[in-house]
Amino acid sequence: MAEEKNLVEVSHLKQYFPVSQGFHKVPLKAVDDVSFTIRPGETLGLVGESGCGKTTVGRSLLRLYEPTAGRIVFDGDVLFDSGEQYDANGEVIRDENGKPVIKNPVKKKMLPYRKKMQMVFQDPYSSLDPRMTVEDIIGEPLDTHHLYKNKKERREKILALMDTVGLNAEHAMRYAHEFSGGQRQRIGIARALAVNPQFIVCDEPVSALDVSIQAQVINMFEELQEKLGLAYLFIAHDLLVVHHISDRIAVMYLGHIMEIADADELNDNPIHPYTLSLLSAVPIPDPETARHSHRIVLEGDVPSPLKMPTGCPFRTRCRYATEQCAAQRPILTDRGNGHMVACFNK
């Protein structure tokens, strides 16, 4: 049986933002050399603390931010390739003048791919235009891509999408401010589904919602995936939510991916010290088990992305750090069954 090809392939993705410091501009390395794949119908969870670059990964993948470097492939088509070449250690190959060797850069126009790749934004309050009715918000992608023959068909499609996400037909002529947070997020989901995409970036879609509403929205994402065969990049803080919905999980710290594994494997057998710390902070519902669990508290503060530590980005807070960790950055290596870890000492 032939192995199923990947729907999304991200290689060496970098997103640097220029920041002024006095008279100079220095790069803020929000995403620095991130690689992962997503298969059709699969959910890859992306977790990490605030400011680690999760949202920037999602937006750069869809080229809402133009990437600084890297390669993005969707369903076999190269959407972006900066043309940089890499050696076996993941380092950029440079010429005698120290400049990166560039070959065959690619920047495709994204409009044809917007139908296949969509995003559900974190804040359902700011991501919906307050001057537009629900019907116009959901219908805007249909208008942009000319996905109906007449106004009757347009309205039928909009009402069908509203029904899919659990909204009533009488909501169509209302404005976003008339809805609760959970209902607004459903409007955002309906808008993303309007173009019948294959892949959706879910950028912390439940973090602004009440816990009771979170469960409803998560269940809806799972039902839609089963019904429509969608693939997700699911970005979140909550490891319990991510473990519930994801097939695989990637753990991110300071713009780098530290560990990727199947959801159950990562939960049962975490290897990277940062993953161990994150999992130790997850609340345990059983009081007896919680009493005997050991909380791993990280020392120190997260370094500034403007002044990244040399070598491993996590070494300044890691109890296992050695001179090797300061000298070079560990690359993701397979520890068996696709469990990838970027660490020298674990």
Care to describe what's here?
The protein is of the alpha/beta class and 346 residues long. It has eleven helices and 13 strands. β12 (333-334) and β13 form a beta hairpin. The relative contact order is 0.14.
Task: Give the gist of this structure.
The chain is 29% helix and 23% strand.
SSE arrangement:
Layout: E1 8-21, E2 24-38, E3 43-47, H1 54-61, E4 69-74, E5 77-81, E6 106-107, H2 111-114, E7 117-120, H3 134-144, H4 151-164, H5 181-193, E8 199-203, H6 211-228, E9 231-236, H7 239-245, E10 248-253, E11 256-262, H8 263-268, H9 273-280, H10 287-292, H11 323-327, E12 333-334, E13 340-341
Parallel strand pairs: 3-9, 3-10, 7-8, 8-9
Antiparallel strand pairs: 1-2, 1-4, 4-5, 5-6, 10-11, 11-13, 12-13
Structural category is: alpha/beta
- Average of pLDDT: 88
In terms of DSSP E residues, the strand content is 15-25%
Strand line-up of the largest beta sheet:
7-8-9-3-10-11-13-12
Q: List the uncertain runs.
A: none
SSE string? EEEHEEEHEHHHEHEHEEHHHHEE
Sheet bearing the most strands, described?
8 strands, mixed
- Number of distinct helices: 11
Number of strands: 13
Helix share, percent? 25-40%
Rg over CA atoms, rounded to whole Å, is: 21 Å
Task: Tell me, briefly, the overall form.
Answer: globular
Give the terminus-to-terminus CA distance: 35 Å
